[in-house]
Amino acid sequence: MALTGLFLCAFLVEHLYGNMLLFYTDGGDTFVEYSHTLVHSLLIRIIEVFLFAAIILHVVQAVVLTKQNSDARPVKYAVYKVDETSTWFSRNMGLTGSLILFFLVVHLWRFFVPYRVTDMVGGEGQLNVAQDVKLAFQNGWYVLFYLISIVFLAFHLNHGFQSAFNSLGMNNKKYAPILSVTGAVFAFGIVGVGYASIPVLFYFGIAGTTF
């Protein structure tokens, strides 16, 4: 669970880097070239297989571990003032994970399928991938859905990042403060702000003006 989670964290960073290329004021050429390179790279195609496998495995592991925990303790502990000892997000990782999975499916259907499966984007006489992103983020409802999903993703990552390293043995007092700060910076500062900036800047016409 920890290893697949950290692998997906690494993917989020790489994917964010690619998305940041949308902010180049070159008519989207850099992002289009980057996307084209990914599609035609054998190495990237192989990594994609591992990526989708990691997503499926992470989901399966979450279900299995949740069931194991439930079976191990059929009668819940009597815990008072639970809000003072844990956050809502840490107690509902399964729920936030399910919402993120739903977002992922919608996101893939909106961008991956038209470009990689049905060939409705990127061809001659069609919108290129940069223009398609701009079109998507001109839809206020999709922008709202995207932002809400990123908020859930950030909180999910904040807890999951620290839990992953704890599972790998880095759970002593020496590393705890470092992991707490690093997890928060990664989840909220890098992933949260980074991904949220894209729909916001496109929706308000700050980014993509040269597309």
Describe it.
This protein is mainly alpha-helical. It has one domain: Up-down Bundle (3 helical TM bundles of succinate and fumarate reductases), CATH 1.20.1300. Helices cover 73% and strands 0% of the residues. It has eight helices and no strands. Helix 1 packs parallel to helix 8, helix 5 packs across helix 7 and helix 7 (140-167) runs antiparallel to helix 8 (176-203). The longest helix has 31 residues, at 42-72. The radius of gyration is 19 Å and the shape is globular. The N and C termini lie far apart (41 Å).
Question: TL;DR?
Answer:
By secondary structure, the protein is mainly alpha-helical. The chain has a single domain, classed as 3 helical TM bundles of succinate and fumarate reductases, CATH 1.20.1300. It contains eight helices and no strands.
Features:
3 helical TM bundles of succinate and fumarate reductases; 211 residues; mainly alpha
Structural category? mainly alpha
Describe the global form. globular
Main sheet record: none
The rounded Rg comes to: 19 Å
- The end-to-end distance, rounded to whole angstroms, is 41 Å
Q: Tell me the count of domains.
A: 1
Overall pLDDT confidence: 88
Q: What is the correct CATH architecture?
A: Up-down Bundle
CATH class: Mainly Alpha
Low-confidence stretches: none
Give the percentage of residues in beta strands: under 5%
Helix content: over 70%
Order of helices and strands: HHHHHHHH
